[in-house]
Amino acid sequence: MADFIKIYEENPNPKEIKKVLEVLKKGGLVIYPTDTVYGLGCDINNAKSLERIARIKGVKLEKAKLSLICYDLSNLSDYVKQINSSTFKILKRALPGPYTFILPGSKSLPSVFKKKKEVGIRIPDNNITLEIVKALGNPLVSTSIRDEDEILEYTTDPELIFEKWDNLVDLVINGGYGGNEGSTIVDLSKDEPEIIREGKGSLDIF
Fold this sequence. Notes:
Elements: E1 3-6, H1 14-25, E2 30-32, E3 39-43, H2 47-57, E4 67-69, H3 85-94, E5 99-104, E6 118-122, H4 127-136, E7 140-144, H5 158-165, E8 171-174, E9 184-187, E10 194-197
Parallel strand pairs: 1-8, 2-8, 4-6, 5-9
Antiparallel strand pairs: 2-3, 3-7, 4-7, 5-6, 9-10
Helix pairs in contact: 1-4
């Protein structure tokens, strides 16, 4: 049975954030709100948690499409190779926001990512997510929660999410209704930005 806790985005309660932190530090999986859809995440430094996410997605870990949820751009060099000034300007303009940026991964990524040449980076504009990552002190590894429904790609009601995921994860955060549109995915690993998927984030900034 997963825990189900309410956290308000306007003013996340530090006690509730601490509960989330304890679950993550023990290797637990957490479902949490972002500025787009609800995400499933774990501590980047816990290999067993990463394996659990891959099993849930039904893929091998090295083939799983996972993003790093960061607090800000200050520790970016820990996870991506050196980027040029124009790329950095795009990141500064767009983040925090509903974008996932594909960047060239660095050699200091955890061992499970060693075979990946690129890594997805997200800084969601959501106080709950940002407070969790800030308290954790390193990124969350995350994937969006998809729905099998042919019409609705994402479940937006946290209570329905809890019902569905109760036996698969350790904690579900009720952060209010989520969105039903994923992030805009932009590949910045090459010379020119390439839009991989148009989502909630506007393309005007490019």
